[in-house]
# Entry
Amino acid sequence: MDKERRARDEIVLVVDDRDRFTGRYASRTEAHRGDGLHHRAFVCLLFDPEGRVLLQRRRHWLWDGLWDLTAVSHVLYRGGRRETYAQAAARALRKEMGIAGVRVRKVAGFNYFVRHPAGDACENEYCAILVGTYGGPVRPDPEDVYEYRWTAWEDFLRDIRGRPQAYTPWAYLSVEALDQVGWKPM
# Structure
């Protein structure tokens, strides 16, 4: 299924600024058009046993070619049920990076709105930050990922702060949110 059709077919959960479900669902496309609809999303950061973070340079319909965190997506309504963050993260890690069986935990979250500079699209999301540990093979899906790298956390922080334009907006905002809560890896 092509990405545009998948965006029309995936159903996201509309939430308030405290991540409470409003009772409304929307297609992923509808949630990202114009001013969008505030919906539930997440980023996932995986660390290897040496404390390095796994990053990807993603293929994306809006933010193509930018560096990003390990996996990112939305919590979806599928098969008559709302996914949990853990279920959505497992789906995204498997699809994007070929990784399965990782336990993640939520360490922070933030609200944000970013209009895409090249059109009538935006990000209007409550974004949970999930972290986990993984030391196995990485098999990225070339439909989603151009390349990946493991990098030391401090090197990543220096790079994203020095070159924020090389990263997705939510990657940069995730770092700021982690700083605000005083979170450090391992």
Observations:
- Helices lie at 3-9, 28-31, 85-97, 153-162, 169-181.
- The longest helix spans residues 85-97.
- DSSP finds five helices and eleven strands in the chain.
- The chain has one domain: 3-181.
